[in-house]
Design a protein that fits this description.
about 70% helix, mainly alpha, 7 helices, single chain, about 170 residues
Length: about 170
């Protein structure tokens, strides 16, 4: 389900509370056009920098879990301040799960592009149980979880394609 178009808050909103800065993806969520896509592009652009600081996979996975936990709170606080639980400007829920997808995706650009496209597809379509979290769990956990599920569908889809391609070649 596509989020209803509610105007983005002003740039000054980001500085009112650290949760707003995080939940709005350090400003990437303020895009007037497709903020979820822009947030996902932000995740893709920042992934190599972040991953380079945490070359150990276990440490990076722990970082992602911490980012998820912080995101639950940040998204909840920001959604409450904006008056919409999953306001379109809240994109931390796209960023953290997409970092996880990239961690599990082959490093070639075409695999990462496929990951981006599948993640956006699943984030928009919200297959079950993502739709449950999107429509029934009206808090920061629900905001984050529907994208975690989109990420899981993305990784599963890429894994299936990888098996098929490996068998064909």
């Amino acid at each position: 389900m596509i989020k209803p178009r509610v105007p983005a808050p002003p740039l000054s909103f980001l500085l009112r509370h650290p949760a707003h800065l995080i939940a709005c993806g350090f400003g990437s969520g303020l895009s007037p056009f497709a903020p979820g896509t822009v947030g996902t592009l932000f995740a893709w652009a920042t992934y190599p920098l972040l991953r380079g600081m945490f070359p150990d996979e276990t440490a990076f996975a722990v970082l992602l879990l911490l980012c998820f936990a912080v995101g639950v709170t940040a998204c909840h606080i920001t959604g409450r301040a904006l008056g919409v639980t999953d306001h379109g400007s809240i994109v931390w829920d796209e960023i953290v799960p997409f970092w996880a997808v990239l961690m599990l995706t082959p490093t070639e650009w075409y695999w990462q592009l496929a990951a981006f496209l599948w993640f956006r597809f699943y984030d928009i379509v919200k297959p079950s149980p993502a739709d449950y979290f999107d429509t029934k769990v009206k808090n920061g956990f629900g905001v984050m979880m529907d994208d975690v599920i989109a990420a899981a569908y993305t990784v599963l889809t890429l894994a299936v394609f990888k098996v098929v391609i490996d068998r064909v070649t």
